[in-house]
Design brief:
- Helix 1 packs antiparallel against helix 2 (58-86) and helix 1 crosses helix 12.
- The protein has helices at residues 24-51, 58-86, 94-127, 132-135, 138-156, 158-164, 181-185, 193-226, 231-239, 242-264, 270-295, 297-311; strands at 11-13, 91-93.
- Strands 1-2 form a two-stranded antiparallel ribbon.
- The protein is globular and about 65 Å long.
- The chain starts with 10 loop residues before the first strand and ends with a helix.
- With 312 residues, the chain is an all-alpha fold.
- Helices cover 75% and strands 2% of the residues.
- The chain has a single domain, classed as Rhopdopsin 7-helix transmembrane proteins, CATH 1.20.1070.10.
- The protein contains 12 helices and 2 strands.
- The longest helix has 34 residues, at 94-127.
Amino acid sequence: MGLFNVTHPSFFLLTGIPGLESSHSWLAGPLCVMYAVALGGNAVILQAVRVEPRLHEPMYYFLSMLSFSDVAMSMATLPTVLRTFCLDARNIAFDACLIQMFLIHSFSMMESGILLAMSFDRYVAICDPLCYAAVLTNEVIAGIGLAVTARSFITLLPLPFLIKRLPICGSNVLSHSYCLHPDMMKLACSEITINSIYGLFVLVFTFGMDLFFIFLSYVLILYSVMAITSREGRLKALNTCVSHILAVLAFYVPMIGVSTVHRFGKHAPRYIHVLMSNVYLFVPPVLNPFIYSAKTKEIRHAIVCMFHCLKI
């Protein structure tokens, strides 16, 4: 069957939270607050890194990349989520849904790659501090950023075409207030093995490998830290990793949860799927600014100075 002969609906219908349809207007307020915190908090981090010369270091350049991916992720979901909950406008055009799906998955993979880059930064800083400045030059950091971005877009470019080749001749109702690949492919009335295999391939060989190398970097970091003779020195070295570890947990724990529910929890209540997906998309962008502001003295100082200058 040719690509242009496949039957598609002209639009999809998005879904809020099953069983709480009458409360969507009440839920709109907290959602707006979460978006405001995510966008505002990460914008403050980006501005602080930009204007504060003391933050022009590899660790903070990677943090600004993480904040950018969080802002982009929030912007990708914001239009449909707020339309669904605030205006009860549930329809989204088929092609617009494909674009949103591609952006959500791409920025998610980008965040995973940035977290891996940040673990490499911590590994070099702790295990080989004398070579830190020579290894992580501005050119290397820019190259890592470009590689992470290119990997995300190239790896996920087939997804819209894999969906477009599937005939969707039954229901056009999605399970969330945004478009995800697993959700869209379930609506197909033909074989979805290729989509499922490619989705699993992406999950294992990008997110899975990123998580493996992050874990490996921390094994090496712990091995190096244990060689430090003084207790104060060990605690100081480990303290520089706390923010990154919390960011990794905030990203990967919900992601593993939603992937497990989508693939193995087919008989779980619908609200479980919706809850896990919302946690996966909303929690990291909201938490990351707080994590780094609370645990990184230099970030706190830069933010205070920035607001003090604005007040003056």
